[in-house]
Amino acid sequence: MAESVVKTMDLMPEYLEKMFKDLMANVFQYDEESGEFSGIATESPLYGKQIYQAADGSGTTTDPELAALDEAGNPVSYYQTADGTYTTDASLAELDQFGNPIFATEGGVAPPTKIGFTDLQQKALDMLMGEKDPVTGEYSYSGLGAYKPYLDMAEDLYKKSEEAIDASTAMYDPLGQIQYDMKDVLDAEGNVIGQEKVAQMQDVLDAEGNVIGQEEVRKGGYKDYYNPFVEDVIDTTLADLSDIKDAETMKSRGEQIGLGAFGGSRGAVADSQFLQDYLRESARAGGELRSEAFDKAMGYSTNAFENAMTRGQTAGQMFQDLGTGIGALGEAAQALGFKDINAAFNVGSLEQGQLQAEYDAERQAQLEEAYEPFALLSFAADMMQGIPVSGTGLTAAGTPQGSPTANILTDTLGLDAGGGDGGLFSLGAKT
């Protein structure tokens, strides 16, 4: 049975084949003579070409081998300015968000990045965590720790209130309250570990002014309120009593003279009686005056001490209330600081989001522009697939032929099988 093989091939029209080859040459092409590759597929559309200053003074170039060189032998690069022009001065270049100058490029797409904290957000963080003064080195707080100076002030006021209350609760001493100084308490190494009260001391002098000892310094007591004129009153009272005694004595002696008994025992008894009455009355009058003066001095000093206690307690309560108010003021200052920080950070977040959106939109536009050539090639390829084409068909058919050797062998076998004289392999007739 004969078998056949048929090959069919559709060939493009010449104009379409030429169009397709030109299209592919723009995408990728290899020059066998130079060994160079060309076409848009040989370079990434994401990367732009650096713009350099041309060495021949013609302006700009993207070929670093044709660029002008600086003193160090590096190509002189152009930088992008805010108004869209180019400059070789880095100090005039537009800066990115990290403060780096932006190189001028031709084509390409900006690398993806995230907009960092804005100045307002950084300011909010500084307000929160503490901003260091570059001159004094001190930190100013509006958030964390903003209450600390107020708390320190409140603590000082509470200490003053304790001192005022302690002073107002001391027992009254009619001789006067002992005055104290605060003295540092040191440990074995000489470090201050606390404070203690030490009584103030003063010298005690004799009549000649010699120091004979020491005693505590006292303040207040009844002596400060003792009437300095009491002794004058006593002296005057005693003088009046002496005058009365003398008058009574003269009167008694006159009576004795009238009776002729002057100088007798009765006169001596009368004079003795007058003297005793005088002494007794003098002691009584002096004692009463001194006792009255002492009682009044004690009353005045006690009232003064009690008034001082009341004032001390009032002052202590006032210091406590003031300390509480200042502590609350610190809390309010910190709370208001947090509000300012939160507002600043939120506004900064809006600014950060807007900048990020603007950057993303600009980069998306750059991506579309970079891939525009590929989009055009894709469009051309799609268009080619839809063009009605009349192709030329070529068909080749082949039929296998039998082997000549096989035919000869077949015929020979047939002759031999028939026998008889004159066979191909017969040597002669059979006998």
SS-derived structural category:
alpha+beta
Q: Write the H/E string, N to C.
A: EHEEEEEEEEHEEHEEEEEEHHHEH
Radius of gyration (CA) equals 64 Å
- The end-to-end span amounts to 44 Å
Strand arrangement, major sheet:
1-18
Poorly predicted residue ranges:
422-431
- Into which percentage range does the β-strand content fall? 5-15%
Mean pLDDT level: 74
The percent of residues in helical segments reads: 40-55%
Largest sheet: 2 strands, antiparallel
Q: Name the shape in a single word.
A: rod-shaped
What does it look like?
By secondary structure, the protein is of the alpha+beta class. The chain folds into four domains: 46-108, no CATH class; 148-179 and 217-370; 180-216, no CATH class; 405-431, no CATH class. Helices cover 49% and strands 15% of the residues. It is built from seven helices and 18 strands. It has helices spanning 14-27, 119-129, 148-168, 230-259, 265-370, 372-385, 404-418; strands at residues 5-11, 29-30, 37-38, 49-50, 52-53, 60-61, 79-80, 86-87, 105-106, 131-132, 139-140, 177-178, 180-186, 192-199, 201-205, 211-216, 218-219, 392-398. The strands form nine sheets. It has a two-stranded antiparallel ribbon with strand order 1-18. β10 and β11 (139-140) form a beta hairpin. The longest helix is centred in the C-terminal third of the chain and has 106 residues, at 265-370. The radius of gyration is 64 Å and the shape is rod-shaped. 8% of the residues are buried.
